[in-house]
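G., the chain you wanted modeled:
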Amino acid sequence: MVRVGTCETMAKDPKNPVVGDLAVDCSLLADLMIDLPPGAMVGMRREQRGLDALLSEVAANQKTLGTRAGILDADAQALAKLTDKILLVRKYKEPLRKLLELVTETEAALDHERHQHISNIAASVEQRAKMPGNEDLRSLYRATREYRSAVGKKAARTRAKAKHGDPVEPVVGPAAP
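Predicted structure as tokens:
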């Protein structure tokens, strides 16, 4: 596990982020942001190879050939402005992708550590419950013990099904909150 120190990875300029920055200020994109409904991107046209050549060609020819080709100046200008906006949005993608990766991995590491403590607590309860006068600890920490054992019990049921020839479905953990 690699810990990221706050001093070295804080963005020098959060409005011009680089991969690894912990502060990314997307306020420059506020007027551009679009929240599409689920599935709305299906069927949308996306950039393809050759776009750079197209953009150069339109820009180079617009002044002398645009009218003859039926290309309005407004259309050529809109193309250039949209390209600039796309480049601005893309500037944030990699730093945000890396930041999401860091946040996701941090959550996973913290959750793993939390579950190590849960296991230790449950094991302590099991051991202490064996001592005279502590017999009630098992019932008082029932939810803790059951939670700790849930994964093992599910694995045992899966192995039992597989042993009897029943089809075994892959185990997928619950979605993180």
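Residues 105 and 149 are 24 Å apart (CA to CA).

Shout if anything looks off.
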